[in-house]
Design a protein that fits this description.
10 helices; alpha+beta; three-stranded antiparallel beta sheet; single chain; elongated; disordered C terminus; 228 residues
Length: 228
């Protein structure tokens, strides 16, 4: 128990910083217990939050963040985004808050994001509706937010919803360029995309990895991939 407390205290999840253990509570089934943690929000408010809720990025503030987002979306004609923010319960909202927590929190499991300088673009960082407009709704429970260029930021053109198999396929065909789906073909570069049935080439060969990556991103954005 002392070891777990030492691991948790001081960690930051979104706007919440863990400062102390605050007991536990029984699960709904009564078969297990869940650790509770006292957290201080950047606004100064204190909240007691279950550890699992913090680690899953379900709650990332005392409620001030949710209220700010609700205030912003309340003026939009698309009221569905307002509902997404309430309680942070929609999968799209959890993906949005999770990507921010990965880039800005100090959980050791997310250290790789910080070390590589991966960040969330300012348009998405300050607006869940902007994020939702750019990436759309999550197609199914099997999909999760994926960065096309694994070393790129969370920004328009570099993010999509993808299944585990699609993400794994892109990792398998990641070439010497360091960009998923872009690899050397002789003296030139080619791009490959997984369309659900198999890997196919994006039309053409390119002088640089960045040109091949641009063609790949265009194909992914349009959801079409003309073959060579």
């Amino acid at each position: 128990m002392a070891g777990r407390a030492k691991e948790m205290i001081g960690r930051v999840y979104g706007r919440l910083r863990v400062v102390a253990r605050s007991g536990s509570r029984r699960s709904r089934s009564g078969r297990s217990s869940q650790a509770l943690w006292l957290c201080v929000c950047t606004c100064g408010q204190r909240r007691i939050v279950p550890g699992a809720t913090l680690r899953a990025s379900v709650q990332v503030s005392c409620g001030c963040w949710r209220n700010e987002m609700a205030a912003k979306t309340g003026a939009l004609s698309d009221h569905s985004t307002h509902g997404d923010c309430i309680g942070g319960r929609s999968p799209e909202y959890r993906a949005w808050s999770g990507m921010i927590a990965r880039c800005e929190g100090n959980d050791p499991s997310n250290k790789g994001y910080r070390d590589r300088g991966i960040s969330v673009c300012s348009a998405w960082r300050g607006s869940f509706p902007a994020f939702l407009r750019d990436v759309g709704r999550k197609p199914s429970p099997e999909h999760s937010l994926d960065r096309i260029d694994n070393d790129g930021n969370y920004e328009p053109g570099n993010c999509r919803w993808a299944t585990r198999s699609e993400q794994a396929s892109n990792r398998r065909i990641r070439g010497s360029s360091g960009i998923k789906g872009v690899f050397r073909d002789g003296s030139l570069w080619r791009a490959m995309i997984h369309d659900g049935d198999g890997a196919v080439y994006v039309r053409g060969r390119f002088a640089t990895p960045s040109e091949a990556a641009a063609a790949l991103f265009d194909a992914l954005r349009s959801r079409s991939c003309p073959t060579a």
